[in-house]
Amino acid sequence: MADYHRGELAVQHRAGLRDPAAGSLRAIRDAVPEAAALFLARQPMIVIGAADASGRLWSTLLTGAPGLLSVPDPRTLTVAALPADDDPLGAVLRESGTRVGMIAIEPATRRRIRLNGVARAEGDGVRIALDQVIGNCPKYLQRRAYALLPPDRGGRRTAVRRGEALTAVQQLTLATADSFFIATASPDGDADASHRGGNPGFLQVLSPTRLRWPDYAGNAMFLTLGNLELNPGAGLLVPDWETGDLLQLSGTARTVWDGAEAAAVPGAQRLVEFRVEAVQETRDAVRLRWSDPDFSRFNPPVAQR
């Protein structure tokens, strides 16, 4: 069983938890249970977070037909896909020894699982030696059904746009999103990827380079906030469920512990602010298309602004 690092313990303590390691650490495994292996085999996508060659954190999305993910043994995950060459993580996931954080979600059933480890390229895919396997609760995940388009109709990457700040259209995309993913890493470089969800408007755009979102009640491990306590680097991924577009952001994040500020946001136990430093928007990046959402009953209301 792994131990929490000092950033995770510091956040747990500040959040008022007593003896947090007693129960929640049991949810962190070093191998994939049989039921989880069957779950992974059904999935058409996985989110991967890692640092690029310069150390900047990003998240990306790999997709394919079910069978994309397989577990040849309980300590290994294989992904039968690689990012495109122009993806921020395209180069490092073609190398060996890249530390990655991953999350596989099944919106149709609101199930998800996080997996962390060390990746190496293998043929046209990636093999990951796992060191953490973490089950997550279904809160704040919107129910959706998917369709996988044929290669001649989706995933053609028709345009790639890069910048250092958000355009007006990108700001609207974020302000109406109901889901995003965030990659963080410990000071030692161990990566993690997590999901954030809520009703549209829960992700606030404060300026072209500044975002904020509420931290709702979760599993009380504080793996993401614990990493940010010691290493502010973060990478956000915002998929467009209807078009297959991907919006990838890299920058820094910090936890806002001011109780008065959190009290102004329904459901927030604290807030997280993110400063945008790099942006990549890719049109028609993946072949997946998803239905309209059935919003989670756990989503707090969004305050009107």
Give the arrangement of secondary structure elements.
Elements: H1 6-14, H2 21-24, E1 28-29, H3 34-41, E2 45-51, E3 57-63, E4 69-73, E5 76-79, E6 96-106, E7 111-122, E8 125-135, E9 146-148, E10 159-163, H4 168-175, E11 179-185, E12 191-197, E13 204-207, E14 210-215, H5 223-230, E15 233-239, E16 246-256, H6 259-263, E17 270-283, E18 288-290
Antiparallel strand pairs: 1-8, 2-3, 2-6, 4-5, 5-8, 6-7, 7-8, 9-18, 10-17, 11-12, 11-15, 13-14, 14-17, 15-16, 16-17
Helix pairs in contact: 1-5
Description:
With 305 residues, this protein is mainly beta. Helices cover 14% and strands 41% of the residues. It has helices at 6-14, 21-24, 34-41, 168-175, 223-230, 259-263, and strands at 28-29, 45-51, 57-63, 69-73, 76-79, 96-106, 111-122, 125-135, 146-148, 159-163, 179-185, 191-197, 204-207, 210-215, 233-239, 246-256, 270-283, 288-290. Strand 6 (96-106) and strand 7 (111-122) form a beta hairpin. The N and C termini lie far apart (45 Å).
- What is the average of the pLDDT values? 95
Structural class: mainly beta
Beta-strand percentage range: 35-45%
Rg? 18 Å
Tally of individual helices: 6
Distance between the termini: 45 Å
Largest sheet: 8 strands, antiparallel
The succession of helices and strands, N to C, reads HHEHEEEEEEEEEHEEEEHEEHEE
Helix content: 10-25%
| Unreliably modeled segments | none
Total beta strand runs: 18
- Morphology call: globular
